[in-house]
Amino acid sequence: FYRTCQSFRQQSTGRTTAVFIFILAATILIPVIISLHLFHAEEEECDQVGFLILQPGLDPYEDKFDGTFSQLRMEELLELAAENIEENTRYIVAPETAVDSIRINDSEDPLLMMAYDFLEQHPGVGMFLGATTIHDTSESERSYTTRSDDAGNLYDIYNSLLLIVPGRDIEIYHKHYLANGVEQIPFESFF
Q1: How confident is the model at residue 57 (pLDDT cuts 50, 70, 90)?
Q2: Parallel, antiparallel or unpaired: strands 99-103 and 50-53
């Protein structure tokens, strides 16, 4: 492009330079003007989707893992949601490990039932719930993280994100990587 402009400038007269500048400006400005017109001319009609982000006032180093009963913590979380939910809220987002010990194999888990009961009172709302989950496992599914309880039952524990929507299966994401500095010390062998 630079060489073309240089060549044109060396061979051009005043009038051809003006034509060249006009063509160059038109090449740049016409698409910009058309884009701006289209951008401002079309307004899309769309429903707003509201998110309710919950953050209970817990000190993560003192209060979060103090042995408070999980059902009490879930009640506090749902109470906070009920106080702040609005008409356009479609999703409630609870923080990582908001509740402990949800058994994801058990559809009758009391904490899950509490979430479903709350969501059924608010049709059209789903919940992203950060939870420590327990997955009962079998010998064939055993991995290096599998533990056993006093009765010999096998289980795995996960830091999970659950998407709970009434009428649908729960969608689950298990955290795979620890956060550097807080959950894992980088270059630990050097320190």
Answers
A1: confident
A2: unpaired
